[in-house]
Amino acid sequence: MIAAALDKDRAKAIIVEIIRQSGGTFRNKTNLFKAFWRAHVEYARTHAASLSRWPIVRMPNGPGIDRFDLLLGELMAEEMVRADQFEAGEVVGFEFHLIGTPAAVFSDEERAAIRKAVGSVVGKTAAQVSEESHQKSRSWNSAKDGERLDVFLDVIPESEFSAREQRLPALVSRIKAIAEKSQPTQPSL
Fold this sequence. Notes:
Layout: H1 2-21, E1 25-27, H2 29-47, E2 56-59, E3 62-65, H3 68-77, E4 81-88, E5 91-98, H4 108-121, H5 126-136, H6 138-142, H7 158-182
Antiparallel strand pairs: 1-5, 2-3, 4-5
Helix pairs in contact: 1-3, 1-4, 2-4, 2-5
């Protein structure tokens, strides 16, 4: 239970840092979701570790923050973040404002990964960042809605991933051959 609370606190801190690094205001929930995912990918790319253990899940429009409403509700109750709605054509969007003072909980490397993620989505529409995530997230493309994504799949360069895919059938054949040889034969009666 303590680990789950720490994971939740870490996820909330990342959300707050995303808003902080965009000048205290962040527009579009979809963009926030993609920045959260991208921060995890960027950190994993350079550290072979995860920025947090909070689940990132497959949503119809790309990677999303699992149980985001819970996290946002707590951040609002803690008077750390305010969420305002705005009209964006035929849809209602959200703008997130940092209203509290966040604690400094990130290393320089973690902050750099979040900064790079924020830079990859700021100024883009929700449709643009969704399309980019569809193109760049191997884990999103291989999952079903609601399933947890493995950001480490999104870190592997395409050339290396393709080479692994080509070697996989031969590996599977060797494993099957070894398994067949190791199975004891049944004596006939």
